[in-house]
Description:
Elements: H1 2-11, E1 15-18, H2 24-36, E2 41-44, E3 55-58, E4 62-69, E5 89-97, E6 100-108, H3 122-136, E7 143-148, H4 156-165, E8 168-169, H5 170-173, E9 199-204, E10 210-219, E11 224-226, E12 229-231, E13 238-246, H6 258-297, H7 307-353
Parallel strand pairs: 6-7
Antiparallel strand pairs: 1-3, 2-3, 4-5, 5-6, 7-9, 8-9, 10-13, 11-12
Helix pairs in contact: 1-2, 3-4, 3-6, 3-7, 4-6, 6-7
Amino acid sequence: MRAIGDGLEALDVDAIAFQELWTAESRGILVRAGRRVGLDHSWQSRAAIGGSGLLVLSRHPIESIRFETFSLPARPPRLDHPDYYGGKGFVRARLRTPEGIVNLIDTHLHARYGNDVSHEYRAYRIGQIVQLAMETLRTNEPLIVVGDFNIRPSDPEYRVLQGLTGLRDAAAESDTPQPSITRSNPYRSHSSKPDRRIDFIFVRDGVQGRIRSQTTRIVFDEVFPIAGEKNSYSDHAGVWAEFVLESAPGRGRPVPEPKAVRMASQLLAQGMAEAQRHRESDRLLAGAGLGAAVVATLGGRDRRISRRRLLRNTLRGIGIVGLTPGIGFSVLSEVFGPDELRTFERLDAQLSMMSWPSPDIVA
């Protein structure tokens, strides 16, 4: 964090957005570093741990802020897939620049965990993109959307995002795309995965203002020693972009493409089916765990110290241990499971509304 803070001055940016700052201490280091170089305005979560991991620093005043937590995933994933616990979402900051208001959205979509699950949580990211798209349709002002999207340009999520929102990929538009995940990074040196671009800056015109991409480049990708070992600033490089804001009529909010709406709906349906399978599996495991607990804890009330009593007490102990996962799977199947299904249904309904007249503008 201190190395990143020391590197802010050389970037000479108007605004910068971070992801995966999971502690108040790490966010505080960068807020203080930003103030030293003129990035006097900031937004961060006040959570000690988690709190979305997002941070925005700006040279220009922040007129208003809106943060929204993603509604998916609505059930805890595997313990070694901790995205659920980070409170991921997006924040929209309205920046007052000399050229007028510019909206900056910072976000971090669900990780792929590609080596562990075949579906790579694609439906979760689609649901998150639907939420994000609804937010972009609430403004007619110039818009910049940045973050770790955990998608590649060849993925359907990329096509859905652009089709629903009308956002343009700044790197593609300026013909300067570069991978943000590389095997030359010490954090990734043992990875077998190829270099890839999953961190993006997207832009969209406002009704009364245009935003044009000039160039993008990779920053914070240098390798340097810490305590005698090769390190870099992060396992992701940063993406830097330069834009020209023009006081001229722009295209403003688009009408979502029907093809993108259909593709998103199909992927949400796959996620709903997967959620239903999870619920049925949790019900079976809950029943098995509770059944084993009941059988194991049944026994006489013989108080004599004997092998039989020792065996029964041991079985009761096993029953208590068996009861805990039984309760856990019951909660997953009867509390989190229905909530996740309802969430998928609600997001699909919001998706359908995108084909209707645009929602009211919210500044």
